[in-house]
Amino acid sequence: MCGTTASWIPLAEAGEWERVVTAVRVKDADRIKQNIDAYQGINENTVATRHICMLVTVCGPGIEGATTTHYHLDHETALYCTEGKGVMFWGDELEVMLEVEAGDFVYIPPFTPHKTFSRSHAEGATFVVARTDPLEQERVVVTPELDDGRCESRIDWVD
């Protein structure tokens, strides 16, 4: 918020942080544990971060483009949908459904199993992801026992 007063410390006392502003351009996506494509921008392998990662993920069209069910150990996740329409199933048995579309923000608490689909058979859904984990993939736990088809019949397809 502009115009507010914040407490501060002298820069000389800022500790051991490497104070280098860095830009990362990612040309190619990686296939990540969640079985989707990800453009991994900010993580401890690309910059001197200690507490966050940031990436762009793409759920492909249809059932085949969905993530595997997974959760993140002890880390919060925030998503912003930039393109498409998606649906996320979450909960211990994926019993809760949340539809999202471009312009929506989503918060996922730590240790929350979730699975995401594009709601289109023709187009994917794209998300900017921020997580309180600089390692990004190291603390992802995949739960294949929940990938048993329990979600697919509940999707309200847009096409």
From TrEMBL:
**Pfam families attached to this UniProt entry:** Cupin_2
What organism is this sequence from? Streptomyces brasiliensis
Q: Where is the Cupin type-2 domain?
A: 66-123
Q: What protein name does the entry list?
A: Cupin type-2 domain-containing protein
List residues traversing the bilayer. none
Highest taxon, organism lineage: Bacteria
Tell me which InterPro entries the record gives. Cupin_2, RmlC-like_jellyroll, RmlC_Cupin_sf, UCP037087
Gene3D superfamilies attached here? Jelly Rolls (2.60.120.10)
Coiled-coil region:
none
